[in-house]
Design goal:
heterodimer, A: 383 residues, 9-stranded mixed beta sheet, 15% strand, globular, B: 399 residues, 17 helices
């Protein structure tokens, strides 16, 4: 059996060790009144770490996760954790949802039941999906790769194997952040098996451009803005793709350090106007952070940047995602919004939704908007 | 001890408070450090060649084991106690410095400034060589050395405000030297220290005898109206850009989100050690074997200094402040003071070799010494070669 049931583990000792480390946190100073100017605010860090230490209930969070069906699939020695929920409806189609960094499968918990059982949420059961939510290799309860080369291409291949193992010859795919890269590769490399792909963020891909191709003004402006953004906000990417091991020591050893590293991205990339808890509850934020802590996967998760840098999503001559693509463009993301023309160079865009609100983590931020868009896009592709 | 008391008398001033300072770390801080090291939660090892994805796990585990079980901080403290050290309070901020006077005669006053991730410790090998050159076979004048800790490093406090940049520090240093009754003085340094020395000469040329730099921290103005880049300059800029892409992640994060990074580094000795050791290995002339170049006890003295003072977060703010609240050099900016560059370019991760004409855009170069060996931490790596160069340079100046 390469697919086995999996129970989310709970360790009292690990929770106690975490609590002891939080008690002993040695805080840095901060310039008074500098708030979030230099990075995560010290006041907020103290507040959330106190909650983490005194009130956060990891056991209860695990009980909530355990309401889903968890499994592990082993591919070439690497165990992949996933949730699998069968759809409630006349003809559910399989849909694989892929998360990114610094998220996890936990992002998807709100949308899984809505997608699997639409009738229970006031929608049409004809829109039901069999929902598969894996953890990326090196993330959450998936194994940490011990060899080089586990990049988005390899991950897409593993996803196809997994779906075949589950008996799904044809499938739908959806994702954001790394999940958008992986989902793109599913569509690009396996068009015969993929019904369509839906992305809630545009990957930092490069379309194939013939020599002498003139970019539109809008595209050029976007690329300029993207490199300005990278200069100001791309440092996490820079360090994670060049020296992930160096940054991992402190993040693996210090819960406060780990929390700061992850929280910053939820605040920057969520549609929250700087008020992180307007979008995410402390429990949502800390459940994700605790998952990284307990599984000791911040290092392996950051390594995906290193691997990606050696095998980036640069389309070669002839590369074009021919399967139907749906884009839900949420207004807040990690950088400037790519114009449609830029995306059309590499993707067969059949559906493009400009969302009025929401950010980089729409499954958490705007589950209804995201789910409705996914249903709408795939409705036209169901045969 | 006599000389220590004597220098105290000589430097005491009614204007600003200067107090003698002795390094003495509480036992509790040291035992807490050991406990944390023993309790380190280690990440897994990266696949591939050692060091290819950052500080190597096995190397670091060895170092940390030695740090907790064998390293003798008290012995280092005792050694540091032999130096006359003070703290001066300027605008409510206490600045730590070593003050080492010429063994005999009137020394040339020289303030030497370290950079990141370093400390005043880096310059201590120069103290005997430059205060008593004759005894060490160095041909040249003796110096009165002032070796401060940058604000927010080691035993110096950092002002609790934004904008502590090269210029800000250069003004502090001028006040420090004035308080020590040095009206005319030389200034030297590397990394941030080279930037500070440059600003001292730009802003207060009348006080400066000359400046001596071991690397080029500041890029000259190369905008409209400046001479076109030579081919050597183009090659240098190209190498520097590539270096930034592959090696500049630390700089990107420190200049944009230093506080976020600070939480882990201030809470984890292993995190701190990995972050700092990686730079000493990449930037020294060690060919990848850090401990073949930099003694383990020196490295751990430096790491312990950062740890016990809790200053990693404040030190990396330098990158943020110099980037967002920094200075911009324009076409008018030119250092007229005599300048010497001792070009220590043998970094393990080669950052480029600036040609002389590049430096001449900004400096009145009077001495240019390509060094065969030694990288970014020249005072510790090649103290004798550096001391000779400093002595020869200042011997050539009239003041």
């Amino acid at each position: 059996m390469t697919v086995q049931r999996f129970d989310v583990p709970y360790s009292e000792a690990a929770v106690e060790d975490l609590r002891q480390r939080l008690v002993r946190t040695r805080w840095p100073d901060q310039i008074p009144g500098s708030h979030w100017d230099y990075g995560v605010s010290l006041d907020y860090m103290k507040e959330i770490c106190q909650y983490w230490k005194d009130e956060f209930d990891w056991k209860r969070q695990i009980e909530k996760m355990s309401a889903f069906h968890h499994y592990r699939y082993t591919s070439r020695g690497v165990g992949i954790h996933f949730i699998h929920e069968r759809g409630e409806g006349p003809a559910p189609i399989p849909l694989i949802l892929t998360h990114g960094w610094p998220g996890s499968f936990l992002e998807m918990l709100k949308v899984i039941p809505m997608l699997a059982d639409p009738a229970s949420y006031g929608a049409n059961s004809a829109d039901a999906f069999d929902v598969i939510v894996p953890s990326l290799p090196g993330y959450g309860f998936s194994d940490r790769p011990t060899e080089s080369g586990v990049n988005t291409f390899r991950i897409a291949d593993i996803w196809m194997e997994l779906m075949k193992e589950l008996g799904y010859e044809r499938l739908a795919a959806q994702g954001g952040d790394w999940g958008a890269d992986v989902t793109t590769l599913l569509g690009l490399r396996h068009p015969e098996r993929v019904i369509g792909i839906h992305l809630n963020s545009i990957p930092p891909y490069k379309p194939y451009l013939e020599a002498g191709t003139a970019l539109s003004e809008v595209e050029q402006a976007f690329l300029n803005e993207a490199s300005r953004w990278y200069e100001k906000s791309g440092a996490y990417d820079h360090i994670q793709k060049t020296a992930p091991q160096t940054v991992a020591y402190g993040l693996t050893d210090s819960p406060a350090g780990l929390a700061a590293w992850i929280l910053e991205k939820f605040r920057d990339w969520g549609d929250c106007d700087g008020d992180i808890e307007r979008r995410f509850t402390k429990d949502e934020l800390l459940t994700n952070i605790t998952l990284y802590w307990i599984t000791q996967t911040i290092h392996s998760s950051c390594r995906l940047y290193y691997e990606d840098n050696r095998a980036p999503l640069h389309f070669q001559k002839g590369d074009y995602v021919t399967v139907p693509c749906g884009i839900a463009r949420f207004p807040k993301r990690e950088g400037p919004l790519p114009p449609k023309r830029w995306v059309e160079r590499g993707y067969n865009i059949q559906h493009w939704t400009e969302m009025s609100r929401g950010g980089h983590f729409p499954a958490l931020e705007e589950p209804e908007l995201l789910v409705e868009d996914i249903r709408l896009f795939f409705r036209a592709l169901r045969s | 001890m006599l000389s220590w008391n004597l220098s105290l008398l000589l430097t005491w001033s009614p204007r600003l408070r200067i107090e003698p300072f002795k390094v003495a770390v509480a036992e509790q801080v040291l035992s807490d450090l050991k406990t944390r090291i023993r309790n380190t939660r280690w990440p897994d090892s990266a696949p591939g060649a050692p060091w290819s994805q950052g500080t190597d796990l096995e190397w670091l585990r060895n170092l940390m084991d030695y740090w907790a079980e064998e390293f003798d901080w008290r012995a280092q403290e005792q050694r540091l106690g032999e130096l006359a050290q003070f703290r001066i309070e300027i605008d409510g901020v206490r600045i730590h410095f070593v003050h080492a006077r010429a063994r005999s005669g009137r020394g040339i006053p020289l303030i030497l400034t370290h950079g990141w991730p370093s400390a005043f410790l880096e310059y201590l090998p120069l103290v005997p060589l430059l205060t008593d050159p004759v005894r060490h076979g160095i041909d040249g004048p003796a110096f009165d050395l002032v070796i401060p800790s940058l604000p927010g490093y080691g035993f110096s406090e950092r002002p609790r405000l934004a904008g502590v940049n090269y210029r800000y520090v250069s003004a502090l240093w001028h006040r420090l030297m004035t308080e020590l009754e040095y009206e005319l003085y030389g200034s030297g340094g590397g990394d941030f220290g080279a930037g500070v020395a440059t600003l001292m000469a730009l802003d207060r040329p009348d006080s400066i005898i000359g400046i001596h730099l071991t690397n080029l921290e500041l890029a000259p103005y190369i905008g409209p109206g400046s001479r076109a880049l030579s081919s050597a300059e183009k090659a240098y800029v190209g190498t520097s850009d590539l270096w930034l892409q592959s090696e500049g992640g630390y700089k990107a994060i420190q200049s944009t989100r230093p506080q976020t990074l600070g939480y882990s580094l201030n809470d984890s000795p292993a995190g701190l050690a990995a972050w700092i050791a990686e730079k000493w290995r990449s930037w020294s002339d060690c060919h990848g074997d850090l401990e073949g170049r930099i003694p383990r006890d020196f490295l751990l003295t430096l790491l312990t200094l950062y740890w016990v003072t809790g200053t990693i977060a404040s030190s990396i703010r330098d990158y943020f402040d110099n980037r967002w609240h920094g200075i911009t050099l324009g076409p008018e900016d030119f250092v007229r003071s005599p300048t010497a560059i001792a070009n220590f370019t043998s970094q393990y991760a080669f950052e480029g070799d600036a040609p002389r004409e590049w430096a001449e855009r900004l400096y009145n170069i009077q001495r240019w010494t390509p060094m065969e060996r030694g990288g970014h931490f020249a005072p510790t790596e090649e103290p004798v070669a550096l001391a000779r160069d400093i002595a020869a340079f200042f011997a050539s100046l009239r003041w």
